[in-house]
Amino acid sequence: MAKILIVGAGFSGAVLAQQLAAHTDHKLLVLDERSHIAGHCHTERHQPTGVMVHVYGPHIFNTSNDVVWNYIQQFGKFVPNLNRVKAVTDRGIFSLPINLLTINQLFKKSFNPREAEAFIKSIAVRIDEPANFEEQALAMMGSLLYETFIRGYTIKQWGCDPRELPASILKRLPIRFTYDDNYYHSKYQGIPFDGYTAIIERMLSHPNISVKLEQRYDRTWNQDFDYVFYSGAIDDYFACQLGRLGYRTIYFESEVFNGADYQGNPVINYCQESVPYNRIHEHRHFTPWEDHSASIYFREYSKETEAGDIPFYPKRLARDITLLKKYRELAQNEAKISFLGRLGTYRYMDMHHVIQESLDMASKFASHTGPLETFPTFPNQHP
Ligand code: UDP
Questions:
Q1: Of all residues in the chain, what percent carry a pLDDT higher than 90?
Q2: What residues have CB less than 8 Å from 237, skipping those under 6 apart?
Q3: What residues are annotated to the active site?
Q4: Are 166 and 347 in contact (CB under 8 A)?
Q5: Residue 305 confidence (pLDDT) above 90
Q6: What is the pTM of this model?
Q7: Element (H, E) at 135
Q8: pLDDT of res. 62
């Protein structure tokens, strides 16, 4: 029986704790500096509307991974949910991700899938090896679609020139030559019936798991444990001694609407650079099975993370990757610790990636014969 410290009570830490409790006899302490479990997925009922609010922004669970889907459902019921985003642009309101309806409406055409594909090919900018986000977008869709839906939103979201950003970010946003307007291309998609926090609570309820909230971690505590799993920000672990990695944070202006429906859709994106926010989320639409007479919505803004802000999105600009390498080298000198999750490994991961990697990490730890790596690698790891 070992004493194990898990820093962070989001999906990374909770899945790991749940699995180690189920498959070993280790004593597990899960710490979180916030006053609640579930990290960025935390949900709570807003009073007085009674609407279930995704406090750090909406999370729609989606995955094509059978293992993850079967696993998560042990901890709560998921109600099927498709994410149909609308986009406000200078040229009108369209459906996202860019699909056949978007293309036909923007270009005032009535293409079938093959015609649309040929048309987009004909307007795409010829760039043999796109080296950054903007080049990737121009090569994929040409300049009108890029200017209408992508450029302004991306500048607001990331706070930099899209030519500085990695092309990989755009892979999250497909172009479809069908009328399928579901934001995600995943086999399974849903919203937890009673919220994410209830799911994480069930994961953490085991006699060998103790949870301490409002507890800022200090790395001198490592000596009191046989092993540490750290899912906080890797630069924070080292008190940012080499400098801060670039993260974007998001913040919300929330408003109550005294009526049943403020905007008619869960998420509306604002793609123009001139509108200061990126999206408006109306939470009642994430639980369409519930009735509420008033509604709450969040305007989402993005900004650079400063001391005290919560990091959300790793920027991964060239200078960040250089700094990350240095932090990883420092981390390799630390004994008996592994880093995990979006912040611990500084990668743009979704919930299902995080869950899969924590499942892999737990099984590697439970069955290992030698020491676990500081940054374990797994088959099918998210890049
Ligand atoms: N994006 C965009 N316009 C949109 C939505 C997304 O340009 O209306 C770009 C933007 O650069 C964003 C990326 O696509 O960062 C990924 O979008 P996604 O919706 O997956 O971001 P998330 O939900 O993780 O914030």
A1: 93
A2: 219, 230, 327, 331, 339
A3: 172, 176, 248, 279, 300, 348, 350
A4: no
A5: yes
A6: 0.95
A7: helix 133-145
A8: 97
